[in-house]
TrEMBL record:
One of its GO terms (molecular function) is MHC class I protein complex binding. It is found in: Cell membrane; Endoplasmic reticulum membrane; Golgi apparatus membrane; Microsome membrane. It holds the Pfam family C1-set. Keywords: Cell membrane, Disulfide bond, Endoplasmic reticulum, Golgi apparatus, Immunity, Immunoglobulin domain, Membrane, Microsome, Repeat, Signal, Transmembrane, Transmembrane helix. This is Tapasin-related protein. It comes from Panthera tigris altaica (Siberian tiger). It is a single-pass type I membrane protein. Interacts with peptide-free HLA-A*02-B2M complexes or those loaded with low affinity peptides, likely facilitating peptide exchange onto higher affinity peptides. Interacts with MR1 in a ligand-independent way; this interaction may stabilize MR1 pool and facilitate ligand loading and dissociation.
Length: 441
């Protein structure tokens, strides 16, 4: 078990207590400890190639304000002396006094919720001349949780007699930690988004900058299928929208740390990987938001011809993305629904908007009392499958167009008679009882 995992185990035991009333919750400063990897790249002289090595590391965010639900009363600060003496991880102690960490609660509770936080630390190359060393930490909570990037400036200088880290050659504190301060953080609460075609989307990007650093630019770019393009840019006093209708929050919110992007009337061209890049007078950091655009299918059941036995056609139109499942279900009066095989499909069609359409065909084989057929469509854009249902008249029906018996009653309000087929829109008829048994004259 790593040092961070042991510390989090103690935290989880504390969090297992009964939570306080939400109105009684107060802010409390706690240490957030994350198991990380330190990534180092070694460039070979005279070559552009480099090798990438990773070593275990620990990130200790000192005294981060979080809302206390009453479970942090017995919580104690992280002590560097608890680290293993044999091959201890590279430990970064990071002060957050200069910036805000808005997603600290999610980082604090992630391990207790069974989520292993991804944390990677690497050297940061400064844009301007600066004597102090800097690192950047990229932290991600899995399962759609927040993502945070933090630029950390090393605080201690190499003094005479100071203990240096054997590989980083940086001075260590008496507790054996590299002392840093977070001077820029960029966060997104929603790294993965799904929106329906034609709707409006808001892509979250928040940031916090240390005093003394100036915000000089915000840029949103879109990467999709190997192509990159500028969507929106902001510099002091200037805005440029390359995508029609794209906008950032008001200037007041932008200067307060909100660089969220709004995209109205989504099309399939808006799908892809969005990069929110925050630039200051010294540092630059970014966050990535994956935007998926979806379109829900429309399902219609009909006949392809008048011949008996009839052939049912299920038209599925206007869906995106491509993956979609069609299931045919057959049900005799008084019997259980049974999946039916043997359906065929038309060629795939794509509209100018990029959505897909396809048709599924099935030969109906009605029983002596008629049979109910259902075309069921499953798609990622749907919370529940779409169903379109038809009742096929039994063999020997004298007329293709027929009148149902009087006791079908309310079914007439939600039925359409086409060539001996009773079409039942599931949205209107789902609450009605099953068809009664009926023998044709």
């Amino acid at each position: 078990m790593g040092a961070g995992q042991g510390w989090c185990l103690l935290l989880c035991l504390a969090l297992s207590r009964v939570a306080a009333d939400p109105e009684e919750r107060q802010w409390r400063e706690v240490d957030v400890v994350l198991d990380c990897f330190l990534v180092e790249e070694d460039r070979h002289p005279g070559s552009l190639a480099s090798s990438r090595t990773t070593v275990e590391a620990l990130l200790v965010l000192r005294q981060v304000p979080v809302l206390d639900d009453g479970s942090l009363e017995a919580f104690t600060d992280f002590q560097g002396g608890t680290l293993a003496k044999d091959n201890p991880p590279v430990t970064f102690e990071a002060s957050v006094n200069l910036v805000q960490i808005p997603q600290a609660e999610a980082l604090l509770h992630a391990d207790c919720n069974g989520k292993e936080v991804s944390c990677e630390i690497s050297h940061y190359l400064l844009q301007a001349t600066e004597k102090k060393a800097s690192f950047i930490a990229n932290v991600q909570v899995p399962g759609g949780g927040p993502s945070v990037s933090m630029v950390m400036k090393v605080l201690r200088d190499a003094e005479n007699g100071a203990v240096l880290h054997p590989t980083l050659k940086l001075p260590l504190s008496p507790q054996g930690m590299v002392q840093t301060a977070v001077e820029l953080q960029v966060t997104t609460q929603t790294p993965l988004l799904n929106f329906l075609l034609g709707s409006s989307a808001s892509l979250h990007c928040g940031f916090s900058v240390a005093l003394g650093l100036d915000l000089t630019g915000v840029e949103w770019r879109l990467q999709h299928k190997g192509h990159g393009q500028l969507v929106y840019s902001w510099t002091t006093g200037q805005r440029q929208a390359k995508r029609e209708g794209a906008s950032l929050e008001s200037e007041q919110l932008l200067l307060a740390g909100d660089a969220s992007l709004t995209l109205p009337s989504l099309t399939l061209k808006d799908e892809g990987t969005y990069i929110c890049q925050i630039t200051t007078s010294l540092y630059q950091a970014q966050q990535i938001v994956q935007l998926h655009v979806q379109a829900s299918p429309k399902v219609q059941l009909s006949l392809t011809n008048k011949a008996l036995p009839p052939t049912l056609i299920c038209n599925i139109a206007g869906y995106y993305p491509l993956d979609m499942t069609v299931t045919w279900i057959r049900e005799e009066p008084g019997g259980a629904p049974v999946p039916v095989s043997g359906a065929s499909f038309s060629s795939l069609r794509q509209s100018t908007a990029g959505t897909y359409s396809v048709s599924s065909f099935l030969k109906a084989e009605p029983g002596p009392e008629g049979t109910t057929y259902t075309c069921q469509v499953t798609h990622i854009s749907l919370e529940e499958p779409l169903r379109s249902t038809a009742w096929v008249a039994p063999p020997g029906t004298r007329s293709a167009l027929f009148s149902p018996p009087p006791y079908l009653g309310s079914w007439l309000a939600c039925s359409q008679l086409i060539f001996g087929l009773v079409l039942l829109p599931s949205a209107l008829c789902s609450a009605l009882p099953p068809f009664p048994r009926w023998q044709p004259p």
